[in-house]
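Known limitations

Files may contain more than one protein. Parsers should not assume a single record per file. Below, a two-record file is shown to illustrate correct handling: read the sequence, read the token line, then continue until end of file.
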Amino acid sequence: MHNWNHKKAEELYGFKRWGNGYFSVDETGSVAVTPKAGGSSIRITEALEEAKSRGLKPPLLLRFQDILRDRVEALNDAFSKAIAQEKYQGRYKGVFPVKVNQLREVVEEILDAGRPYDYGLEAGSKPELLLAMAFVEDSERLLICNGYKDETYLRLALMAQKLGRNVIIVIEQLDELRTLIKLSKEQGIEPKIGIRIKLHSQGEGKWATSSGEKAKFGLTTPEIVAATRNLKESGFQNSLKLVHFHIGSQVPNILTIKNAVTEATRFYCELKKSGFPMGYMDVGGGLGIDYDGSRTNFESSMNYSMEIYARDVVFNIQSVCQQAEVSVPDIVSESGRAIVAPHSVLILEVFNRITRHDHTPSSVMKQPRKHKIIEDLEYSLNSESSQTALERYHDALQKREEAFSLFNLGYLDLETRAVAESLYWKICKKLVRDIPKKGYQHEELLALRSSMVDQYVCNFSVFQSLLDHWALDQLFPIAPIHRHLEKPTVDGIIVDITCDSDGKISKFIDLDDEVNDILPLHPLTEDPYYIGIFLIGAYQDIMGDMHNLFSKVAEAHVFLEEDEDDGFYIEEIIKGAQNKEVLELTQYHSRDLTRMIKKQIELATKSDAIGPREGMRLLNFYTHVLDSSMYLEFE
């Protein structure tokens, strides 16, 4: 224990590998956030205490808004350097795909940070287009329109063009093109059109099926030929400006990106040589985040950096265009995950620990004559043995089964069975402690280790705050945010407060084995114990499910500020939803519920089951709970 320090904790949880310079463990044992390279750091515990002083409690989402700005700048700088290095004659015109995180405070910060780069937005639905039209206020930023489109969607996009916005409508299906041509003729406007192509190149990772020939979006090669013929015949040949493709979200392998860019650029060159003006090459999303820090092509990682990504995109587009003797296009990317994932940290408070081996009834243990099963289990626990770990485990398992059988037949009382179970788990704990964590182990012993983990119960819902983990087994970095001067001695998993056995986190990042079944944690004390879940700024804010009617958690927006004593300030707090707000989403209106409860209280008062004063107290308590958080509240 005395050899443990914050550097070893930083290595154990992988901060330096997945933290990307943003997250580290400082000399006090606290997790610190450094939003800008070489800049000031913020201890998460101090940001948490500041939020608590303003009435917020975990579960709490901390947004470090300066990280958003840094990510936008880093992406644009990466492309600027690649363009300069390759002497590329086009520009980079990035857009943020709103679907990745539609929250206003996120979109506003990204647009403000992207102002010097003319960084725009991508919309994939009517509501996303409505907000994008309002926030993209100048003609230099691109507004890319993706997704399935009806007449209303297309009319909105044309309206944005009439207002002077730089709108490109990406055709996903041939029917959309026919409708767009009809509406454009009606309104006397020449739209800017892009075509999304279905590549032969296949994606890689969890979202590989969103690309390739079986993808639900995009045009096949024969459909592209039909679309270009339609454009020429209808007099809209000059409208075709962009080729778009999407190889999938979180692409782990740079070779996949290279192949897709090369194939898509061939389409671009062919269209350009066919007489269409073109001008833009949209490489879609796919730029990944190294969630596990392994820097490999594992699905939760990536074997390249942002700089390598930009350089390879620029190089491959230029190489194909030079070979085809076609002028290079401006490059558009729709990198969302890489921009927003690092800026959010979910803070959980542990309020209980479920373990199998801490309690042994002392009354049976002190009896002069113990049952033979108890004596055998005690001997196995306390004596040294030449048996292998697997043999000792089998012996203990046999004795436990004997105890269960005798109990079922009425020959063993409840307290003796409890002692037998407790001794069995103590033996298992001892065996697991002595099993080497590296090298080959029998599958039964590996299963035993997994079954011995403690469950740390946290005040949150996996379905609301971490849906991708439950639905897609997406891994996220998870670590305590403090106490890193102490060596973690507990093998644990995290469980939530929903009434569902799936409400847990039992898969964790591991640099050696890619996925680990346990998370090293500290023993609980009387002081609060906080755990952070990192890199959750992409998708998790929006995609949450209201299982058990648990809704969005409270959040605080943290900014660096050198003039403040602790180097930061919280600009805005957003309190989590109240019980009545969540109930009303499912058509249970608080006024109706209160009226129904009041009627029950009146009936109970008339029957003398409760007094009038107690009835009022009960009614006030009910309305108080309606107005409070749906998450557990601890003093």
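...continuing to the second record:
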Amino acid sequence: MNNKIALLQDKIKQAHAGGGPVRIESQHKKGKLTARERLHFLLDEGSFEEIGMLVTHRSVDFGMETEKYPGDGVVTGYGNINGRLVYVFSQDFTVFGGSLSETHAEKICKIMELALKNGAPLIGLNDSGGARIQEGVVSLGGYADIFYRNVQASGVIPQLSAIMGPCAGGAVYSPAITDFILMVENTSYMFVTGPNVVKTVTHEEVSSEELGGASTHATKSGVTHFSCSNEIDAINHVKRLLSYMPQNCEEIPAPLAYSLGQDETRITLNTIIPENANQPYDVREVISQIADQDTFLEVHKDYAENIVVGFARLAGRSIGIIANQPAYLAGVLDNHASVKAARFVRFCDCFNIPLLVLEDVPGFLPGTDQEWNGIITNGAKLLYAFSEATVPRITVIIRKAYGGAYDVMNSKHIGADMNYAWPTAEIAVMGAKGAAEIIFKKEIQLSADPEEKLLEKEKMYAEIFANPYRAAERGFVDEVIEPSATRTKLIKAFKMLENKVVNNPRKKHGNIPL
């Protein structure tokens, strides 16, 4: 028996050694942790249970039968994060560059299936050179097996992808299907075709970092939701992100202890909006006053900055916030902002996270660039996402709510449960100046002083429409509130809505304008 136990311990030791000390040292020199080190920092101490430690590849071509490593380049299993069950896989770049083989894929699929059966989040730590070319189509099939399971799990359990190194070719599509992607600056990258292929086909000279680094995807493409300074930062982001989510679609996010009954008035909100309606302000200052202190976690911070989305807590409960940002492009909706917000709304709706919309939108961004790149269908995605959402939905109109953008930003007409407006709200088809120019065009042209006449008519229109009271009279706004009372109103309203049930028409699924 002792000999058999010794043999087992030797095999475990081999598995823990990965690709060996030389390759581990090379990994460390790049500023990267090993697959097992990442899991050590991610999971609660002593909670990790490994599955498939002794799996090896089955390839016999190109001399592969002589080079086998227990685990085959990926560490898989389950453990806890802050006491919550999660399933994990962590690719090991020290073994065949983390390349995906048939058995490597089978290990990941097994973990995905367990996560789905048991209703717990799935976290992937990606660090792979791509498909293992020695296995040909078998490794490509492994990718497809993973993609299929990603889709089956979508909207059932949260799926998070942390890109800790290369992720190229077909490998990028698994993270792309998951709910959130995190990347590490300077050591991770994602692209479908690498710099060499790009140079051959388009003659562009571009580095891996420029083509698909964390900064590129955080600012230009929007592929990644979080750009992290190092791997520990990325792991801490995963933990914090997970804290706002439930285990699965059948549960609600766990609330934190909060003592109700204290004064929730925020006097600062009464002076946060500039007197001049065309002057910008940072909507994050509004969010910080409404949400519980230091709980706002912004998503896609550096992408489509004219809209701000993220998670926060309100009286200890997890909520999703979508807010127009007047400090960038006046807070207009454009192609990127619409898609960014729509994706976030749908995630929150999947996992029973109530939605708060802070509205200050002058409309959709005009121009050929927007029209030719599909602002009609992209704007419709946000409209569709809100209309489809069945979670509690509350809108606060802070200032401007013009045109079709008023409808799209969670208006009462598309199913919002409660709509509040500040006294500074302006709810109209368009701004007073533009409206006056159209309505009183002839009168202004025939006037002795057209400029003076325009100002007069602009003021007239503003007095009638550039306020929240016409909408309140119609019931499109439930209440016009003092800004300082916003947090109090929202706590009570979300509490009132916590048992909301919506029975939608039976269907296979809707056809969102993709």
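Parsers that stop after the first record will miss the second one. For reference, the second record is described as follows. The chain has a mean pLDDT of 93.
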